[in-house]
Design goal:
The protein has ten helices and eight strands. By secondary structure, the chain is an alpha/beta fold.
């Protein structure tokens, strides 16, 4: 399997950022790790084997990014004003620096699929809903999509922009993004087993917001045996990929 490693300076963050690329071509996929995870986690947790046929056949190309969760979402002792602005700098790194590199390296001209599990699902959903002009599809597994627990209830204009449940709920019904969302493929899934309870609640909240706004999404609730863990995420990503890729 073709693999590339990159370490490049980010002007938005003022430091080097790393990412891995897996596969030689096909649909570009931006991958976010779980909370405090790293850009190599999908490799370490068996996702390359799970998606091996897609990668070997040139149907997918994975771009696995790093986050700075330890400075932002996970830094519960920090000032929420500073934390969310650091998060926004990371958001700008992804949109203005990493996405152009993905387009350059991928070379297909396709819009991106964005995905992640757990906190990575929050990132995936947040980027998709903020920039549906860049991302034509999203798969979020076992995520929470509001910021109340992340910032202790703190809210300002930057938190608002990064809180899909709040920002979409307050979006005018004639906002052009509503139609754009409905031209995209949107999947969010959560289990009902061990460690999934807060994620189940978060997914239900997003489900209600999207329904209220007339946004068509596939929100799937799996069984009581479905836990918050990699073996289930590997099954789920295989289940939903044919839909978001337009294969079914």
């Amino acid at each position: 399997m073709h693999k590339q490693y990159f370490k490049e300076y980010s002007a938005h963050l003022g430091r080097d950022m790393e990412f891995n690329v897996y596969g030689h071509g096909g649909k570009p996929v931006l991958v976010f790790p779980c909370q405090n995870g790293r850009f190599f986690d999908w490799e370490g947790f068996g996702m390359l084997e799970t998606l091996g046929d897609y990668l070997e056949q040139g149907r997918l190309q994975l771009f696995c990014a790093d986050t700075i969760d330890g400075e932002t979402l996970s830094n519960l002792e920090g000032n929420p004003y500073d934390r969310i602005r650091r998060h926004e700098a990371w958001y700008n790194y992804i949109v203005e620096e990493l996405v152009p590199r993905i387009r350059e390296l991928n070379g297909t001209g396709q819009d991106l699929l964005v995905t992640g599990f757990s906190m990575g699902a929050y990132h995936a959903g947040n980027f998709f809903f903020r920039r549906p002009d860049i991302f034509d599809s999203v798969i979020g597994l076992s995520g929470v999509y509001d910021t109340a627990a992340m910032y202790g209830g703190y809210m300002d204009e930057v938190v608002y922009a990064n809180d899909p449940c709040v920002s979409i709920a307050n979006m005018p019904d004639d906002h052009p993004y509503i139609a754009l969302y409905n031209s995209r493929r949107i999947v969010f899934c959560v289990g009902q087993g061990a460690w999934e309870e807060p994620l189940l609640e978060g997914t239900r909240r997003l489900d209600a917001v999207l329904r209220d706004k007339g946004v068509h999404a596939w929100i799937d609730y799996w069984g009581y045996d479905v836990n918050h863990d990699w073996p289930w995420w590997r099954k789920q990503i295989r289940y939903f990929l044919p839909y978001v890729l337009g294969e079914v």
